[in-house]
Amino acid sequence: MRYFYLAFAIAVAVGFSSLADVFLKKSHFTLGSAMLLGVLFYALAAPPAAIAFKLVDFSIVFIIWEALAIAMGITLGIVVFHESLSVIKIAAIGASFVTLFLSYLATK
């Protein structure tokens, strides 16, 4: 059950962090509602991130966080900002999850 809470906390934190990135990018870094929403979503990412860091070592949280952040960032770039999907982006997502899997095997 501990790993469920860990995965959930990291997923929520990465989700909020990714939303914050989207709003900050849309704000063009000028003060307004988009920037304020970006800051709010970053603040909302902090509690689940803190929970994740309390559950396991920093290195494990960092690896999971980065793998999810890469996948989420590429996906949001394609969906929200209409960026093109490329072989490099697919390879980056694949490599991040291979890294996640190999890190899991290394802890066994």
Explain what the structure shows.
The protein is mostly helical and 108 residues long. The protein has one domain (2-106). It has four helices and no strands. It has helices spanning 2-27, 33-55, 58-79, 87-106. Helix 1 runs antiparallel to helix 2, helix 1 crosses helix 3 and helix 3 (58-79) packs antiparallel against helix 4 (87-106). The protein is flat. The mean pLDDT is 93.
List keywords for this structure.
4 helices, single chain, 108 residues, mainly alpha
Layout of secondary structure:
Layout (H helix, E strand, L loop, with lengths): L1 H26 L5 H23 L2 H22 L7 H20 L2
Describe the sheet with the most strands.
none
β-sheet strand percentage:
under 5%
Q: Which spans of ≥5 residues are poorly predicted at pLDDT below 50?
A: none
The overall number of domains is 1
Apparent shape? flat
Report the total helices. Answer: 4
Helix content: over 70%
Query: What's the order of the H and E elements?
Result: HHHH
Number-wise, the strands total 0
Category from helices, strands and their pairing? mainly alpha
Rg from Cα: 15 Å
| Average residue pLDDT | 93
Cα(first) to Cα(last) distance is: 18 Å
Tell me briefly what this model is.
With 108 residues, the protein is mainly α.
